[in-house]
Specification:
With 588 residues, the chain is an alpha/beta fold. Helices cover 67% and strands 7% of the residues. Bound molecules: guanosine-5'-triphosphate and magnesium ion.
Length: 588
C-alpha cells in the first residue's frame, strides 16, 4: 500500500545525510573491487535510511473520535468525521508527508485513500492511518483492521471518557497487542466528561486484569481543534495532544532512529568484512606465503559450507519447506475446528427456534462470530509464521551468520472481504401468499372429491356437504403444510449455514495459503542471498590469493601499498560509522 507510494518522508536530518554519504563512500569501494552484489545491498541500506517511515494505525470502536484524533495530530481536517462532513470514510485513510496537500484513492480494493500534507509529525517519518471504527469485538472491520496491524509500528487505540472499556474492547486490545507490541491507549473527549480520570483508573484496572500494561493518555481532539483555531497555547496543552506527540517522538521516532543507526552500523560492518576478506587474504599471501596457504585452506573449507547453504538440500531449506507444510496444515485444521464448533452451535439454535423469523439477525450474528474465528485463526498463523522464521534463522545461523528479514505483510485489509453472507431461505421467500394458495389447493381438492361423490346421489357439485369437506380438508392441509414447511425451513437453514462455512473455509484458506507462499519465498530469497554473498566473498578471497602468488617482486610492493591504502580506508569508514551510529539524535 504505502510502501509503493512515490511520496517519501522528509526525514533528511543531518544524521541521515551523513549516514547516506558514508554508504556512498563505501559503495565506491565495493564498486572498485567489483562486488556489484554488495553495491546493491548498500543502495538498499541508503533507501531504508531516507525512507524510514513509521506506520501508526489509529483504531477503536466507532464514533469514539478516531478520525478526529488523526486530524488533531496533523492539525488539519483531512479525515472525514461524523461531526464534519457527516460521511465517515468507508476505508482506511493513510496520511503521510508531502510538500503539498493532496488526496487520492490508494488504488486498493478496500477503498483506501491516500492523503499527503506537510505536517511536522509526518515530516519526522510518521505515517498515520485512520481506520473505520470497529463496531464490536468480532466484526468484519476488526478482522480487516487486524490485518492492517501486521505492518504497524505503533497502534493508537481510541476510546472515550463516556465509559470504561467494554469486554469486546478488551478482547480487541489483546489481539492488537499480539500483532503490534507498541500500543497506546488514548482516552478521548475529556472535555465532555469531568470524571474522565475515574474512567482512566477503571480502564487501567481492566488492562491490568488481562496482564496488559499499556499507557493511557487522556486527550480532547475537539479542544485541540479550538486551541488551534484560536492559537491558544494553554488550551492546546490542556487538550493532551502535545503530550501524545511527545510520547510518540520519545517512544517511536527516537527508538526507530536508534534501530536505523544500529542497522546502518551493522551493514557497514558486514559489508566491509566481505570486502576485507579478499584484501586480507591477498595481503597475508603477499607478506607470508606459508601463512597464506594455511588461510587459503580454511577459506576453501568455508567456501564449501557456503556453497552447501545455497543448495536446495541445505538443512535450513528442509526446515523451511517442512515448516510451511506443517503451518498450512495447522492453520487449516484450526480454522475447520473453529468453524465446526460454530456450525454445531448454529444447528442447535436452528433446532431450538424457527430461524426464519429472525433470519436477518441470525445471519448478522453468525457473520460476527465467523469474523471472530477468522481473526483468531489469522493471529495463530501470524504467531506460527514468526516462530518458523526464528527456526529457519537458527538453523541457518548454525552454519553461518544470518540476519533476520522482515516478514511480508500485505496489510490490505482484504481479510474481511473474503466470505459472503448467509443467503435468503427459499421457503422464507414463499411467505403467506404461497401458503394460502397451498391450502386453497387442499380445500379445492376436498370440494371436488366430496362434490363428485355427492353428485352421484343427485346433489349439485357445490353443496353444503362438499363445502364442509372442503373447509375441513383445507384446514388440515394448512396445518400439515405449516409443519412440513417448518421442517423444510430448518433443513434449508442448516444447508445455508453449511454452505456459508464451506465458502469461508475455501476463501480464508486460499488467502492464508497465499500469505504462507509469500513467507516461504521471502525467507528462501533472503537466506539464499546471504549464502550467495558469503560464497562470493570466499571465492573472491581465493582468487585474490591466487593472483598474489603470481606477482613478481616489483609488482608485489606496489600491490601491498595499494591494499594497505584500501584497508586503511575501510577501517576509517568503520570507525566513522560506529561514531555516527552511537551519536546523539540530531535535529533537522
Ligand atoms: N466532545 C468531544 N467530542 C468529540 C471529540 N472528538 C470527537 N468527538 C465527536 O465524536 C464524534 C465521532 O467522531 P469521529 O472522529 O467521526 O469518530 P470515529 O471514531 O472516527 O467514527 P467512525 O469513523 O464513524 O467510526 C463526532 O461527533 C465528533 O465531533 C472530543 O474530543 N470531544
Ligand atoms: Mg472515522
Amino acid at each position: 500500500m504505502t510502501t509503493s507510494s512515490p511520496v517519501l518522508a522528509a526525514k533528511t536530518t543531518a544524521a541521515t545525510n551523513s549516514m547516506t554519504a558514508l554508504l556512498d563512500e563505501l559503495r565506491s569501494v565495493t564498486d572498485a573491487v567489483g562486488r556489484a552484489d554488495l553495491s546493491v545491498r548498500l543502495r538498499a541500506a541508503s533507501q531504508r535510511i531516507t525512507d524510514n517511515r513509521l506506520r501508526v494505525v489509529v483504531t477503536g470502536e466507532s464514533r469514539k473520535g478516531i478520525s478526529s484524533l488523526v486530524n488533531a495530530l496533523v492539525a488539519a481536517d483531512v479525515c472525514p468525521t461524523a461531526a464534519g462532513r457527516g460521511n465517515p470514510a468507508r476505508g482506511p485513510v493513510v496520511v503521510e508527508y508531502g510538500e503539498s496537500s493532496s488526496r487520492r484513492p490508494a488504488g486498493d480494493l478496500d477503498h483506501t485513500e491516500l492523503v499527503t500534507l506537510p505536517a511536522p509529525l509526518l515530516a519526522e517519518g510518521l505515517v498515520i492511518i485512520d481506520t473505520p471504527g470497529v463496531t464490536g469485538g468480532g466484526s468484519r472491520r476488526a478482522a480487516a483492521t487486524l490485518e492492517l496491524l501486521t505492518t504497524a509500528d505503533a497502534v493508537l487505540f481510541v476510546s472515550d471518557a463516556s465509559q470504561e472499556y467494554t469486554a469486546p474492547e478488551i478482547r480487541f486490545l489483546e489481539q492488537v497487542h499480539q500483532l503490534c507490541p507498541l500500543v497506546v491507549c488514548v482516552l478521548n473527549k475529556i472535555d465532555s466528561y469531568v470524571r474522565w480520570d475515574d474512567i482512566q483508573k477503571a480502564n487501567r484496572k481492566h488492562l491490568t486484569a488481562v496482564g496488559l500494561s499499556l499507557p493511557i493518555l487522556p486527550v480532547s481532539s475537539a479542544m485541540h481543534a479550538t486551541a488551534h483555531r484560536l492559537s491558544d497555547e494553554v488550551l492546546e496543552v490542556e487538550s493532551g495532544i502535545p503530550q501524545l506527540e511527545t510520547f510518540l517522538r520519545g517512544h517511536l521516532i527516537e527508538r526507530a532512529d536508534t534501530v536505523v543507526r544500529e542497522s546502518f552500523a551493522n551493514d557497514v560492518r558486514a559489508i566491509s568484512d566481505h570486502v576485507a576478506l579478499a584484501m586480507n587474504t591477498e595481503l597475508t599471501t603477499l607478506h607470508d606465503p606459508a601463512r597464506g596457504a594455511e588461510l587459503i585452506e580454511r577459506i576453501h573449507a568455508a567456501r564449501d559450507t557456503f556453497d552447501g547453504l545455497r543448495k536446495r538440500t541445505a538443512n535450513w531449506q528442509y526446515v523451511l519447506g517442512d515448516g510451511i507444510t506443517e503451518l498450512t496444515v495447522a492453520v487449516d485444521h484450526d480454522l475447520r475446528t473453529r468453524l465446526r464448533a460454530l456450525i454445531r452451535e448454529s444447528e442447535e439454535e436452528i433446532a431450538k427456534s424457527d430461524p426464519v423469523k429472525q433470519w436477518e439477525a441470525f445471519g448478522k450474528s453468525l457473520d460476527e462470530r465467523i469474523a471472530t474465528e477468522v481473526s483468531a485463526n489469522f493471529l495463530l498463523a501470524h504467531k506460527l509464521s514468526i516462530e518458523l522464521t526464528d527456526k529457519v534463522a537458527e538453523r541457518f545461523a548454525a552454519d553461518g551468520p544470518a540476519q533476520l528479514p522482515s516478514l511480508p505483510g500485505s496489510g490490505t485489509g482484504a481479510l474481511a472481504e473474503q466470505w459472503g453472507t448467509l443467503e435468503t431461505l427459499e421457503s422464507n421467500k414463499a411467505g403467506v401468499i404461497q401458503r394460502t394458495i397451498t391450502s386453497l389447493r387442499g380445500s379445492y381438492g376436498g370440494v371436488l372429491m366430496v362434490g363428485v361423490a355427492t353428485s352421484l346421489i343427485g346433489l349439485a357439485l357445490v353443496n353444503p356437504y362438499s363445502i364442509a369437506a372442503g373447509v375441513l380438508l383445507g384446514a388440515n392441509t394448512f396445518r400439515e403444510d405449516h409443519k412440513s414447511l417448518k421442517a423444510r425451513r430448518r433443513a434449508e437453514a442448516k444447508l445455508a449455514v453449511a454452505k456459508l462455512m464451506d465458502e469461508v473455509v475455501f476463501q480464508v484458506n486460499n488467502e492464508s495459503k497465499q500469505r504462507l507462499r509469500e513467507l516461504q519465498r521471502t525467507l528462501r530469497d533472503h537466506f539464499t542471498e546471504v549464502a550467495d554473498e558469503m560464497l562470493r566473498s570466499a571465492e573472491e578471497a581465493l582468487r585474490a590469493a591466487q593472483d598474489a602468488g603470481t606477482l613478481h617482486d616489483s609488482g608485489r610492493a606496489q600491490r601491498i601499498a595499494e591494499l594497505d591504502a584500501m584497508s586503511n580506508r575501510l577501517r576509517e569508514l568503520r570507525v566513522r560509522a560506529a561514531t555516527l551510529a552511537s551519536g546523539p539524535v540530531q535535529a533537522q
